[in-house]
Specification:
Layout: E1 7-12, H1 19-26, E2 32-35, E3 42-50, E4 53-59, H2 71-82, E5 87-93, H3 97-109, E6 114-119, H4 121-126, H5 133-140, E7 144-146, H6 155-169
Parallel strand pairs: 1-4, 1-5, 5-6, 6-7
Antiparallel strand pairs: 2-3, 3-4
The structure holds guanosine-5'-triphosphate (GTP) and magnesium ion.
Magnesium ion binds at residues 19-20.
């Protein structure tokens, strides 16, 4: 079944940070999995409704950098640059914030529409990390949201930020 969507959200991030769990939290049924054209890399596409807007959501293979080395990274980069998403969710492991921010900066420098998601915030808190989201937002000049994809914590806040972001872009 073809469903009409009026926006597109792409989820990117390093391997094993919770991209697919976040994808599953946002989308429900209507998920399709297919090989990215010309490759053996699988890409999942689903649909989510935020406010009055239906978005196509795309889960990408893990990437460390916008300069691709692996086929997976090349696919993730192509999706970012060719599919013209309205919102790109850069999801990171909050425990490894400093190691993960360089890709955020690359994405911002490339002029892409980024919302930063600090996932696995439960484990970050457990080891005593305190992350000031407002400071981070001010420094990076992009929205930042903390989530726990395994439980769903923060997902409604993320949806609200996506709605605001798209509305502000007009
Ligand atoms: N504690 C905790 N674990 C999480 C959270 N999000 C994801 N995980 C765990 O992290 C692992 C990876 O989750 P995935 O959703 O498969 O991550 P991914 O980014 O899609 O991984 P790749 O597709 O292999 O790059 C799983 O074991 C999850 O249970 C979270 O918020 N908190
Ligand atoms: Mg995955």
């Amino acid at each position: 079944m073809v469903r009409k969507t009026s926006g597109k959200i792409v989820i990117v991030g390093s391997p094993n940070v919770g991209k697919s769990l976040l994808f599953n939290r946002l989308t429900g049924s209507y998920v399709t999995v297919s090989n990215y054209p010309g490759t053996t890399v699988e890409v999942s596409r689903g649909v989510t409704k935020i406010g009055d807007t239906e978005f196509e959501v795309i889960d990408t293979p893990g990437m460390y950098s916008l300069l691709p080395i692996t086929e997976e990274e090349r696919v993730a980069r192509n999706i970012l640059l060719k599919e013209r998403p309205d919102v790109i969710i850069h999801i990171i492991d909050a425990k490894n914030l400093e190691r993960m921010l360089p890709l955020t900066l690359q994405l911002i420098e490339a002029g892409l529409p980024i919302i930063l998601v600090l996932n696995i915030i439960d484990e970050a808190e457990k080891i005593g990390m305190k992350i000031d989201l407002h400071d981070l937002e001010r420094a990076l000049k992009i929205p930042a949201v903390a989530t726990v994809s395994t439980t769903g914590r923060g997902i409604d806040i993320l949806k609200g930020r996506i709605e605001e972001y798209v509305r502000a872009k007009g």
